[in-house]
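wait is this the right file?? whatever heres the structure
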């Protein structure tokens, strides 16, 4: 029976949904409409050129696999892009999806003693091995977008970045072996781990580099045990020159995997191989790890990544925009960076939602749109106003530079801006007097209290001043 396009696309969506975060699915796949299915070519309509480019850039591999699975090896995808015509109505144009346009970072072909793929279970695909071949190519599984070039340097990540860079220049030969990168989620471990691998492939194409997520490693190990071919598993990993294992915290409480990893580690280390691991905890906080393994981690360097400061957050947004060839007003960039402070992944998520919304509804990217989206983005719809943000709005209002606020100057207008920042911080945030003081020119809590009284007095006595304060409060709360 012939499949129709709606059915086929729904099947594809089922697969896609299982493979990407829900938010991305909603953003990028829900707005797509299936148009037709002819000779194994499925045409889908996307709302804009930007959508098309984004999907091609980020989901092409997944789409290709999905289409092949659903429509067979001849399966093709075509996009129909809704274009804004000069008459104001939208008309679709069709483009053919480019195929296999990605460069793949290749490892040299190596000989395998035995075929490790023998008996591997079907539901956990082994990405490393081509079945039935003695000579194998091990794909390094690196994502080219996660390069050093795309990794913005800041105080928050300087040590980790430069250690990573040193390792990439001299894998296995620095004191940073193993290199352990740790931080809570969303601050750049995975990015940096890939960057090291990419740089090593670039500097030393003959080296076999492998990036693997730790849960993949565990699954392969479990498979190997089940099929009684642990030796093949060990041989495979012992061939690697640069082994990058992401999210190793899952190793806790898994003695079998720990043991396997311990032996692989020792073998690689003795051979001068490089090991890079990442974890969401510092080594000292990793519970359930054997002491002998923990002591191996201490041989090298543990470097943490921290939450980026405002400047770095702005630089990160600008880099992402630049890489995607998108322009965005400076005040919107600042607004994002001021309001999303905890984690780079969230910052990216908000940026992407903003771009998608603007593209979907054909609205310009404005501060207003950014506010709507961020309000939705930040939990409970109650956006926390930060002291940094208050300072920025106050300084913009009086047209003074934010550095002046933290300076020692006693110029009247600066003092007033400082006092207003303190007043609004007290009124609109949950920060203590002491921490407001520290944030506003390193003053003590008594100064903050004095500032609040002064502003309150002025509001009562000076009508014009009261007007300023009301206007400012509106701007801050907007
Ligand atoms: P983690 O592995 O620590 O959870 P990721 O490496 O996945 O975090 O980073 C989350 C997102 O933030 C990625 O898209 C990454 O590119 C981006 N990111 C994190 N730090 C930086 C940085 N310093 N410069 C540019 N992008 C960054
Ligand atoms: Mg990660």
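ok assuming it is, sequence goes like this
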């Amino acid at each position: 029976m012939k499949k129709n396009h709606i059915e086929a696309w729904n099947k594809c969506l089922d697969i896609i949904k299982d493979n990407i975060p829900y938010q991305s699915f909603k953003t990028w796949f829900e707005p797509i409409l299936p148009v037709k299915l002819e000779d194994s070519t499925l045409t889908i309509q996307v709302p804009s050129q930007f959508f098309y480019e984004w999907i091609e850039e980020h989901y092409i591999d997944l789409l290709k696999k999905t289409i092949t699975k659903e429509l067979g090896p001849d399966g093709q995808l075509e996009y129909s892009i809704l274009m804004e015509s000069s008459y104001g109505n939208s008309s679709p144009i069709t483009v053919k999806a480019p195929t296999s346009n990605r460069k793949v970072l290749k490892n040299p072909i190596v000989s395998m003693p035995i075929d490790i793929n023998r008996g591997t279970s079907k539901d956990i695909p082994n990405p490393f091995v081509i079945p039935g071949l003695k000579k194998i190519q091990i794909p390094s599984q690196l994502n080219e977008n996660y390069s050093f070039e795309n990794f913005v340097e800041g105080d928050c990540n300087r040590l980790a970045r430069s250690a990573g860079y040193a390792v990439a220049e001299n894998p296995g030969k620095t004191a940073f072996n193993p290199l352990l990168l740790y931080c809570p989620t969303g601050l750049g471990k995975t990015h940096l781990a890939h960057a090291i691998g990419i740089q090593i492939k670039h500097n030393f194409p003959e080296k076999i580099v492998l990036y693997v997520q730790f849960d993949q490693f565990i699954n392969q190990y479990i498979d190997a045990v089940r099929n009684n071919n642990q030796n093949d598993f060990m041989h495979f990993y012992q061939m690697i020159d640069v082994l990058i294992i992401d999210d190793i915290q899952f190793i806790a409480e898994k003695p079998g995997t720990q043991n396997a990893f311990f032996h692989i580690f020792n073998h690689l280390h003795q051979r001068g191989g490089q090991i890079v691991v990442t974890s969401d905890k510092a080594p000292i906080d990793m519970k359930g790890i054997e002491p002998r393994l923990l002591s191996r981690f201490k041989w090298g360097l543990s470097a943490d990544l921290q939450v980026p400061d405002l400047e770095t957050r702005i630089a990160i947004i600008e880099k992402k925009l630049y890489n995607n060839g998108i322009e965005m007003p400076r005040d919107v960039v600042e607004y994002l960076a001021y309001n999303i402070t905890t984690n780079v992944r969230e910052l990216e998520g908000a940026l992407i939602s903003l771009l998608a919304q603007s593209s979907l509804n054909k609205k310009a990217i404005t501060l207003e749109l950014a506010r709507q989206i961020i309000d939705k983005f930040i939990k409970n719809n109650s956006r926390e106003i930060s002291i940094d943000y208050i300072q920025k709005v106050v300084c913009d209002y009086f047209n003074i530079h934010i550095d002046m606020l933290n300076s020692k100057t006693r110029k009247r207008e600066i003092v007033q801006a400082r006092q207003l920042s303190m007043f609004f911080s007290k009124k609109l945030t949950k920060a203590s007097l002491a921490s407001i003081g520290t944030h506003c020119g390193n003053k003590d809590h008594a100064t903050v209290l004095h500032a609040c009284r002064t502003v309150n007095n002025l509001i009562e006595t000076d009508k014009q001043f009261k007007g300023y304060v009301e206007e400012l409060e509106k701007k801050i709360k907007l």
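Residues 5-97 form a domain with the GMP Synthetase; Chain A, domain 3 fold (CATH 3.30.300.180). so i think its the right one actually
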